[in-house]
Design brief:
heterodimer, A: alpha+beta, five-stranded antiparallel β-sheet, 38 helices, B: alpha+beta, membrane (chain B), AP2_Mu_C_sf (chain B), Clathrin_mu (chain B)
């Protein structure tokens, strides 16, 4: 007798038959019928029509039948809310049952029924169960609070369940503690600003005690919670580490990895000279190695995390290279990760072994893996200089195999090796040339062409080789076309006499017969250069190239530090901070490693700092250079809509410059860009800029004046912060702030020349951003900026630029050019510069809109330490275009209803509750409602900045 | 936390779904199917798949995909560990974990899953607790239940659930009190062409089968505990005692459980008990290749190697093989190109060998890749790392139990490159 009998159906109609059986008098028949119903449900059949009949079976003393009915209820209550009410009585009764199993089951099931009407009845039983004498019931109830919060957060807060939950952290039973922590962590995730898990040394001590006694899953929750704590000094950090270390020997890999996270984070606070530091490092290696003998899925997650750990602390696993050697039947996702870590661990000491392995992998079956293995050999050559020669000879061996994709991949990496060690391995070129015909992938063809162009003077038949590519020029991909163009120009500059015809051919192909603007532009540039000044052309085209380094594939240090705080989470699998993929960006709090030196000030944990604090503390939002460049390539080149026509041209030219410069550095990986910066700067750019100067400077003077006078009445202006330090910008330091005066936004900049040479030809461009901020006029710098000189400029902005959602929302990426180079930086602008003057909403309209916006769009914030009364708040906010529409006094609390409008027409409605009391403890409760909830966080920051200044 | 679970068979049918929070439409699995299609083999489906609103974490065991759906940032290892636990529980309950068995026991499966998670938080995952809550089905019980009208759901709170020793229930009684321990070691190794070891490590476990009355407190000590520098324990083991005295002190779980797993890393010298001599050659001109393998013992400490099995994935170009073994049986599947040779025991006086020719596609060039040989074997009464149990003592109870220790060495992922 098996359960499959429940699936057999009769012709009469299954539902009809089940109904009859459910109403049968015989207990056994009833149970069998319910089982059939559940069986149908599990395979996705709709049996909701039987709802009343099933619920009728609920009043029973048979526990199995009761459980089955509960299972059914959880699935279908939502679709039949009115019927579900019928079940409430039984639930309430069961919560009083003498058997703790039934009490727990009832409260557990009730929490799973996502029907508003039922949740109302849940509160009382839940309150009782949270204080139940039996820990099994308490621990079930703790989870139930999290369920209820998911259904109705407000109810949970109003009923004070959160406080009860916090009390459970000090419960005597470790399982209850673990569940309370788990529930609080889940609730806290949807409330980033609330300080639910307020950890202090006492509560930490309780958690550590519970850690030893609770289940493996509870240990995970507790460890993850501990990782959010910042110890006050290195001694506390060490004592926590000592108590966490035994978890490294747990059989559950998730416990191990969570413990590794805590240790990696707190280790940051320990001094490297400490004996304990070395002991800890030694203890970390074995558990990580053990993770690799688990099931492949676990291995994968572990490997992704180990990848981060070896970047942060390579010393931990430096002797464990062999465990990362690939087995031929590992799944491909494990193989690729292992390979990556092998390269990171490669050093002079073990390179021979690594190379032998990589060569072995290159003969495997899986094409993707083979390709990556070949690339890995190239990366080893670049990373370990002493091994370069060996790597090259290994690659040559592989080329001899004549396996098509191996050869192509090898040629691509040999190109990189040439870039790193110029003029060292040219002897292999002959071998490479033999394989010219077998190359069919663009990347390999481009690499080969680059090699031929670069070493044209050593290859006798370079012209023939390149000419052979030229025949099918239009069928090639852009990458190959561009490369071919450059290579032929190089060849011409090296051997001008024999190749004149060839160069003319390629230039005409590129400029006249091609539809690709990049190719055409590059063609024209070469053409002009060659025809006007061949010497300059030589300097540009054959310029020294910067060497490439192995650092290119490392994760940027600030990001790495953040990711270390997320070991064991999805973020660590994707190697992206949660803000990059968590839906809606809600609940995103940047985590950072604790500082090494413990100071008395650091009691406030850095995790609680809001994501968009005032500029100056924000180096972590600046994306890697690569990302920025990529973004800037997307720069909209269209001229700004407003602004004096004269200026327009110069801005446009400036934009072109930026692009040229950007492209130039972007091509770091490619043979070379269009040329050095001095070549790209067209002489025209300076002329309109200086022409425009008088008007612009007049304007900016005017702005200066207004900002000087208007500070009191206008919106709040943050002090200037350094956006671009001189170190990063070859001596140019830029600091600035944003202001809003009578409807116009401007960016107040202060440029300081800290270099030894004069700076001229300034231009500025913004990347596309969330609110379309763009310069309304070109950057006006009157005269060349001499060394040690500082100039203040007010750059008017408008909001009609191109829009692209940024992360964080108020991130602005800026490129500034001068005669030296192009510099990129990014900054965060306070949102209140976008609050428009007509942001006052009609009262009726406000009421209607408030109701209309769904509740899940509402965000709650607290502003602390703001000793202001309602009037002062109101007037302060009004000057920044946040308008108070109505004011009410409820139970001694002032409620302000406010509205504001952003430049892009988004309305934000606010309810501000001012709790009077001790002036130094006044807390403002801010509820924001908006159709675009992602702005709420930033509006809240604007409130905070305005009110506190 | 864990939102939902879908069970998918290898032909891509969802045959069971369970939701612990709101219901997630099964269409979310379309993302999984996409990934499944991209992966050439089932083993290669990536374990973490992002979708616009959810994340899919999957494990593949017993030809079934267990796909968990999560919505928020949850430690992926937590989810994957849990999924493996689900599989182990099914296996424990039904003997095998397969689609027909799950379908046959769908209601029990559903009840068990409901007990394992609450709102996505693990509730009861220890199998002896689960078995107290929901009795595993047996033919006898079904008969008894139908006659007496009793159910297979326990109505008592499982005793272990909240005690300090959640892995053991109280009031255990046996007429024969016995405690058996199996020390099992698996050798993972990669041997290169010339026969030298590239990497070798030992994964060891001590599995216990303890049937003792009452609340016994056991102490297990080793002759050479220094070997165990990388260990993971069952929660019952007292870590402090281990740290200070290097002995295992614990109140055992009832029945079978894994007491300890350990890892002897590649840095220690690992003895390799077998060697493989091979000569596999293809020639460019001929459509015939030579194939010859001999297996022999090496560092076996005088024990016999048995259960030897050689498998190898031959290159695609090999059409067929004609081979003669000196002992055992061999098969070659011309479709999957899998060669397997069941050798049996190795007699050191007469080494087993497999010789013959491979026929290749005529005119095709010789294969690029070399086949890798996969080896399985067993050695009874030997722990290859040299680990030895010194003594086992019992405190807390009066009776005298039967005690037994068994050693065994097996091949884990043992690969010989050619």
């Amino acid at each position: 007798m098996t359960d499959s009998k429940y699936f057999t159906t009769t012709k009469k109609g299954e539902i009809f038959e089940l109904k009859a059986e459910l109403n049968s008098d015989k207990k056994e028949k009833k149970k069998e019928a319910v089982k059939k119903v559940i069986a149908s449900m599990t395979v996705g059949k709709d049996v909701s029509a039987l709802f009343p009949d099933v619920v009728n079976c609920m009043q029973t003393d048979n526990l199995e039948l009761k459980k089955l009915v509960y299972l059914y209820l959880m699935n279908y209550a939502k679709s039949q809310p009115d019927m579900a009410i019928m079940a409430v009585n039984t639930f309430v009764k069961d919560c009083e049952d003498p058997n703790p199993l039934i009490r727990a089951l009832a409260v557990r099931t009730m929490g799973c029924i996502r029907v508003d009407k039922i949740t109302e009845y849940l509160c009382e039983p839940l309150r009782k169960c949270l204080k139940d004498e039996d820990p099994y019931v308490r621990k079930t109830a703790a989870v139930c609070v999290a369920k209820l919060h998911d259904i109705n957060a407000q109810l949970v807060e109003d009923q004070g369940f959160l406080d009860t939950l916090k009390d459970l952290i000090s419960d005597s039973n470790p399982m209850v503690v673990a569940n309370a922590v788990a529930a609080l962590s889940e609730i806290a995730e949807s409330h980033p600003s609330s300080n639910l898990l307020d950890l202090n040394p006492q509560s930490i001590n309780k958690l550590l005690t519970a850690l030893n006694e609770c289940t493996e899953w509870g240990q995970i929750f507790i460890l993850d919670c501990l990782a959010n704590y910042t110890p006050k000094d290195d001694r506390e950090a060490q004592s926590i580490c000592e108590r966490v270390t035994p978890r490294l020997s747990h059989a559950n890999s998730a416990v191990v990895l969570s413990a590794v996270k805590v240790l990696m984070k707190f280790m940051e606070m320990l001094s490297k000279d400490l004996d304990y530091y070395g002991t800890l490092l030694k203890k970390l290696a074995p558990p990580l190695v053990t993770l690799l003998s688990a099931e492949p899925e676990l291995q994968y997650v572990a490997l992704r995390n180990i990848n981060l750990i070896v970047q942060k602390r390579p010393e931990i696993l430096k002797h464990e290279m062999k465990v990362f050697f690939v087995k031929y039947n590992d799944p491909i996702y494990v193989k690729l990760e292992k390979l990556d870590i092998m390269i990171r661990l490669a050093s002079q000491a073990n390179i021979a072994q690594v190379l032998a392995e990589l060569k072995e992998y290159a003969t495997e079956v899986d094409v993707d893996f083979v390709r990556k293995a070949v690339r890995a050999i190239g990366r080893c050559a670049i990373k370990v200089e002493q091994s370069a020669e060996r790597c090259v000879s290994t690659l040559l061996d592989l080329i001899q195999t004549k396996v098509n994709y191996v050869v192509q991949e090898a040629i691509v990496v040999i190109k990189d090796i040439f870039r790193k060690y110029p003029n060292k391995y040219e002897s292999v070129i002959a071998t490479l040339c033999e394989n010219l015909d077998s190359l069919d992938e663009p990347e390999a063809r481009a690499a080969m062409i680059w090699i031929v162009g670069e070493y044209a003077e050593r290859i006798d038949n370079a012209d023939e080789l390149l000419e052979s590519f030229l025949e099918g020029f239009h069928d090639e991909s852009t990458q190959v076309q561009l490369q071919l163009l450059t290579a032929i120009v190089k060849l011409f500059l090296k051997k001008p006499t024999e190749t004149q015809e060839l160069v003319q051919q390629v230039l005409s192909l590129a400029t006249q017969d091609s539809d690709n603007p990049d190719l055409r532009d590059r063609g024209y540039i070469y053409w002009r250069l060659l025809s006007t000044d061949p010497v300059a052309a030589k300097e540009v085209v054959l310029a020294e190239k910067p060497l490439i380094s192995e650092e290119t594939d490392l994760i940027e240090p600030t990001l790495l530090d953040e990711l270390i705080c997320y070991i064991g989470t999805l973020a660590s699998v994707y190697h992206k901070p949660p803000s990059a993929f968590v839906e809606g960006g809600r609940g995103v709090v940047h985590k950072s490693l604790p500082p090494r030196t413990a100071s008395s000030e650091s009691t406030e944990s850095p995790e609680t700092a809001p994501a968009g604090a005032p500029p100056g503390e924000q180096p972590d939002v600046i994306p890697t250079q690569g990302d920025l460049l990529g973004d800037l390539l997307n720069l909209d080149l269209g001229p700004p809509v407003s602004g004096p026509p004269l200026a327009t041209t110069s801005v446009q030219m400036g934009a072109v410059d930026l692009l040229g410069g950007g492209l130039d550095s972007l091509m770091g990986d490619e043979p070379e860009g269009i040329g050095g910066p001095n070549f790209v700067a067209p002489p025209a750019a300076a002329v309109p800029a200086s022409l425009g100067a008088p008007i612009g400077s007049g304007l900016s003077d005017l702005f200066d004046l207004t900002s000087g006078v208007g500070t009191l009445s206008g919106s709040y202006v943050a002090p200037k912060a350094v956006w671009l330090p001189a170190m990063k910008a070859k001596g140019l330091e830029i600091s600035g702030t944003f202001t809003r005066q009578v409807g116009s936004i401007s960016m107040d900049l202060q440029l300081t020349n800290k270099a030894l040479q004069v700076m001229t030809d300034f231009a500025i461009q913004f990347n596309r951003n969330s609110f379309g901020l763009a310069p309304a006029a070109p950057l006006q710098v009157h005269a060349p900026l001499s060394p040690n000189q500082t100039v203040e400029i007010s750059l008017p902005l408008n909001t009609v630029g191109s829009v692209m959602k940024m992360e964080p929302l108020n991130n602005l990426q800026v490129a500034v050019k001068n005669n030296i180079d192009v510099f990129y930086f990014s900054t965060l602008y306070p949102l209140h510069i976008l609050f428009v003057e007509d942001g006052k909403m009609d009262r009726q309209m406000f009421l209607a809109t408030w109701k209309d916006i769904p509740n899940e769009n509402e965000a709650q914030f607290q502003i602390r330490d703001c000793p202001l009364n309602a009037e002062a708040v109101s007037s302060k906010l009004q000057s920044s275009n946040i308008f108070t529409i109505a004011k009410r006094n409820v139970e001694g609390q002032d409620m302000l209803y406010q509205s504001l409008k952003l430049t892009n027409g988004i309305w934000v409605l606010a309810e501000l509750r001012i709790q009077p009391g001790n002036p130094s403890f006044t807390v403002l409760q801010l509820s924001l409602k908006c159709r675009a909830p992602e702005v709420s966080q930033h509006v809240y920051q604007a409130y905070e900045t305005i009110l506190k200044n | 936390m864990i939102h939902s679970l879908f069970l998918i068979n290898s032909s891509g049918d969802i045959f069971l779904e369970k939701h612990w929070k709101s219901v997630v439409s099964r269409s979310v699995c379309d993302y999984f199917f996409e990934a499944q299609e991209r992966a050439t083999e089932a083993e290669n489906v990536p374990p973490v798949i992002p979708t616009p609103h959810h994340y899919l974490l999957s494990v593949y065991r017993h030809k079934i995909f267990f796909v968990a759906v999560i919505q928020t940032e949850v430690p992926p290892l937590f989810v994957i560990e849990f999924l493996h636990r689900v599989v182990d529980t099914f296996q424990d309950y039904f003997g095998v974990c397969s689609e027909p068995v799950i379908k046959d026991n769908v209601v029990v499966v559903y009840e068990v899953l409901e007990e394992m998670l609450d709102n996505g938080f693990p509730l009861a995952t220890e199998s002896n607790i689960l078995k107290e809550l929901i009795k595993p089905p047996t033919i006898l019980r079904t008969v008894v239940n139908t006659i007496t009208g009793s159910t297979n759901v326990g109505d008592q709170l499982p005793t272990g659930q909240l005690s300090v020793v959640p892995w053991r229930r109280t009031g255990v009684k046996y007429t024969n009190n016995e405690a058996y321990f199996d020390v099992i070691e698996e050798i993972d190794a990669i041997i290169d062409k010339s026969g030298s070891t590239i990497t070798a490590e030992i994964q060891g476990v001590i599995d216990a089968c303890v049937k003792l009355t009452g609340m016994p407190d056991l102490t297990l000590s080793f002759m050479n505990p220094r070997l165990l520098d990388d260990v993971s324990f069952h929660p019952c083991v007292r870590f402090k005692r281990w740290e200070s005295e290097r002995t295992l002190s614990f109140i055992p779980a009832d029945g079978s459980f894994r007491l300890l797993s350990y890892h002897v890393s590649a840095q220690n010298l690992v003895a390799i008990p077998v060697y493989v001599r091979h000569n596999i050659s293809f020639r460019d001109s001929s459509s015939l290749g030579r194939f010859e393998i001999t297996v022999g013992p090496k560092q076996t400490m005088g024990k016999t190697i048995e259960g030897v099995m050689v498998t190898s994935q031959m290159p695609k170009g090999v059409l067929n093989m004609s081979l003669t073994p000196s002992q055992g049986t061999h098969t070659f599947d011309p479709v999957t190109k899998m060669l397997s040779w069941d050798v049996g025991k190795i007699n050191p006086q007469k080494l087993p060998s497999l010789k013959g020719t491979m026929s290749l596609q005529t005119g095709a060039s010789k294969p690029d890749e070399n086949p890798t040989i996969n080896l399985q074997f067993k050695i009874q009464q030997l722990a290859i790392s040299g680990l030895k149990v010194n003594r086992l003592d019992m405190y807390g109870e009066k009776y005298k139990p039967f005690k037994g220790i068994k050693y065994m060495t097996k091949a884990g992922k043992f690969q010989v490159r050619t």
